[in-house]
Amino acid sequence: MQKFxxxxxxxxxxxxxxxxxxxxxAACGGSDAPAVVTVASxxxxxxxxxTDTATSTAVVTAVLDKTFSFPAVTELGTSAATxxxxxxxxxxxxxxxGSEGKTATGTMxxxxxxxxxxxxxxxxxHKLAVGQIVTVTPCALExxxxxxxxxxxxxxxxxxxxxxxxxxxxxxxxxAVSATGTVTVAGQTVGTVSTTTTTGAGS
Length: 203
Known about the structure:
Structural class: alpha+beta
Radius of gyration: 20 Å
Distance between the termini: 45 Å
Shape: elongated
Order of helices and strands: HEEHEEEEEEEEEEEEE
Number of helices: 2
């Protein structure tokens, strides 16, 4: 999968924060009661699909009016930097795709992402010309939850949109991971992740 930007430093910083919190709490509690901190052990990938419309609607609602920037997206037929903005409602979104100084708009259905082009500056036989229907699989939101403390507290977290083999640059959204691993993005529940515990050294 083509990755548009690297966020390894962000992930390490978040995981380090969890370890620091564990160590700090352990020091406060003394050697007899080392603190245990629960963190998300993996990132969350929330797919848009026809079979899980609740999650699909939640994902779209969480990213409405956000601009996701990609390099060229083969599945959309673009050969230069490409942007995607979803708007309208989570259950029945509209979209705007821009590339090469041109724009295509229309409606998006679930299954993975099905783009129906209703207005466009692209001309036939381009995939984004008026009347075209483009299905992109996979189509998903990647939420970089690995290392986030599972306390239910929302933090600014990098997220990426995936279109086929291409991944967008980071967009920062408010993300929370609960003690049971439930992930919410901008207040929308998009699924669960596994968690693990870290223990700080006693004083």
